[in-house]
Write a structure and sequence with these properties.
homodimer; about 150 residues; mainly alpha; Arc Repressor Mutant, subunit A; 3 strands; about 10% strand; DNA-binding
Chain lengths: ~150, ~150
DNA sequence: TGCGATTAAATCGTGTGCGATTTATATAGA
DNA sequence: TCTATATAAATCGCACACGATTTAATCGCA
């Protein structure tokens, strides 16, 4: 829960907890992204996956999972939906048949480029933050996430 | 997406985005909470609901939703699970039968007290942050969340 | 070579979130 | 009064997350 200050009189007690601010900000980001991504027919986690897949061809499900901090139980269905949408390719590695290699189709690559061309600017505007504040907050949250994952064992 | 810096060479491109840091920190908090809450038989959102319900007796589903930033489509099933677990009471308001009044049972109240007595301290330790840094980050995230909700229309 | 251990991905069940709709109740105005 | 409108909660379907397990393939080592 991680309290920040003694509970003020009338307010929401949850507002005192960092974990809740993170939780609520995550919900809020999703609500900003939803109408921006709906035209592309993808969800926010799917968008993250496409961006992660853009950086390198032939990544495995595990490699994608390291970038998203997710595992195959979450990623396999997500990636299959992207495959069904014609955005991603899934191929068993011929050297090691346990491994699935992921790639973007032309449509997937184009969608990622197009979305990255407009969506981030709109989200940036929605935050109402300047670049310096944004970078500082991002750095602090990245550190916090890494510390928590380390504590939790992943 | 909200970028913070030009994409560095080898790293994870997602790490440059504030939205992803928030998303990943949320996942990480959940992973820290899970083993701490499992002994009580509740989930993290259920824990938040119990804390919110502790602050006032007889809150409506809508009032709880304002505190958690959720609506009845999410809260009704969650609250029914807490009721089934014997932690929460649900009663139709006699003055206005549309409204459901929520309360904590003795068990629910005790669980909230007990959990608040130990869990936050452990989570605080897991963050590895001091009180000042924690409060600053909490404030920045609360502001960001409010700005994003305002932009999204809730 | 063979067989137990390890690894990668997939599968299954549960609990969120949420858009869209429905149900039930209350309110307002002609 | 009667009916249209508004409101509170519930319902439904879908897409995550994730613990636990399963399936399939590879590796290690005698």
């Amino acid at each position: 829960m991680t309290e920040t200050a003694p509970n003020a009189s009338g307010g929401n007690p949850l507002d005192q907890f960092l974990c809740f601010s993170v939780y609520a900000a995550g919900l809020a980001f999703n609500r900003v992204y939803k109408p921006l991504l709906d035209p592309y027919g993808i969800t926010y986690p799917q968008y993250l996956a496409l961006v992660a897949l853009s950086s390198k061809e032939g990544q495995t499900v595990s490699e994608l999972g390291e970038k998203l901090h997710l595992e195959s139980n979450t990623l396999t269905p997500l990636v299959k939906r992207l495959e069904a949408a014609g955005l991603v390719t899934r191929t068993r590695d011929t050297q090691d048949e346990r491994v699935v290699r992921l790639g973007l189709t032309v449509a997937g690559s184009n969608l990622a480029k197009t979305a990255l061309g407009c969506v981030p600017a709109e989200v940036l505007a929605a935050t109402g933050m300047d670049q310096a504040a944004l970078e500082e907050l991002n750095g602090n949250l990245a550190t916090l996430g890494a510390t928590l994952r380390d504590f939790a064992g992943r």
